[in-house]
């Protein structure tokens, strides 16, 4: 049987394919990704992950499903203890200080992505917000699984890959997929359509995030 998440995954497939093929990912695996690009990505992603954690807590307040609520609260804590904690080690290695993070403005794409997820919750519903969170979990897991066999010759990049291929991470992805499917079970056709749009837009923002890092995007007037 085709699940709801299979359907929305299919709808977002062109964005996912472009992410798998993106030069940021190729260069990370080949070990040729410039360190300043990776530094930039990590700083922007620090903003992203901290808002992503807050969103878990805010969505949990609005979710009736007790199991889902607990998963979201655990997910917020898991982000701090897991992904964000791993990144602290990366920051140390690359000499990224709290001052540098605090003084670097969030870039347009990261800002828009985060705002999109808040809009799904505050101008939409918790079900839409859940669907909007899912690409973040699932896409990185698929990228980790694609890249891990070959790996990267750069230790830091290899650790990044392994984070997203780990059993713990994969388990959280499976639970998030299950929560999205349970949320869709309670939704009518119109709400399912909005959940799909939230998922596809987050997938588009995931793709844009790699390019943002390669361009080291800034707020500026463009021609
Ligand atoms: C933008 C983004 N998307 C997804 C992930 C993986 N949690 C991340 N760290 N950053």
From TrEMBL:
Gene3D superfamilies: Heme oxygenase-like. The keyword Metal-binding does not apply. It catalyses: thiamine + H2O = 5-(2-hydroxyethyl)-4-methylthiazole + 4-amino-5-hydroxymethyl-2-methylpyrimidine + H(+); 4-amino-5-aminomethyl-2-methylpyrimidine + H2O = 4-amino-5-hydroxymethyl-2-methylpyrimidine + NH4(+). Catalyzes an amino-pyrimidine hydrolysis reaction at the C5' of the pyrimidine moiety of thiamine compounds, a reaction that is part of a thiamine salvage pathway. GO terms for cellular component: cytosol. It comes from Secundilactobacillus pentosiphilus. Pfam families: TENA_THI-4. Belongs to the TenA family. Pathway: Cofactor biosynthesis; thiamine diphosphate biosynthesis. Residues 9-215 form the Thiaminase-2/PQQC domain. Keywords: Hydrolase, Thiamine biosynthesis. It comes from the Bacteria. It is an enzyme of class 3 (hydrolase). SUPFAM superfamilies: Heme oxygenase-like. Homotetramer. This is Aminopyrimidine aminohydrolase. GO terms for molecular function: thiaminase activity. Coiled coil: none annotated.
């Amino acid at each position: 049987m085709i699940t709801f998440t299979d359907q929305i995954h299919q709808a977002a497939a062109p964005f996912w394919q472009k992410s798998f093929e993106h030069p940021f990912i190729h260069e990370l695996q080949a070990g040729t990704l410039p360190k300043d690009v990776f530094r930039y990505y990590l700083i922007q992603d620090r903003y992203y992950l901290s808002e992503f954690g807050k969103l878990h807590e805010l969505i949990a307040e609005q979710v009736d499903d007790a199991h889902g609520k607990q998963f979201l609260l655990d997910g917020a804590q898991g982000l701090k203890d897991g992904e964000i904690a791993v990144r602290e080690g990366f920051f140390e290695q690359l000499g990224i200080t709290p001052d540098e993070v605090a003084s670097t403005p969030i870039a347009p794409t990261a800002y828009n992505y985060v705002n999109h997820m808040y809009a799904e919750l505050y101008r939409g519903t918790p079900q839409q917000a859940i669907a909007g969170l899912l690409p973040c979990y699932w896409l990185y897991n698929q990228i980790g699984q694609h890249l891990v066999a070959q790996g990267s010759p750069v230790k830091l990049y290899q650790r990044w890959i392994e984070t997203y291929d780990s059993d713990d991470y994969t388990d959280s992805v499976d639970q998030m997929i299950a929560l999205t499917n349970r949320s869709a079970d309670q939704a009518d056709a119109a709400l399912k359509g909005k959940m799909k749009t939230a998922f596809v837009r987050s997938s588009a923002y995931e793709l844009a995030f790699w390019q943002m890092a390669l361009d080291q995007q800034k707020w500026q007037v463009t021609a």
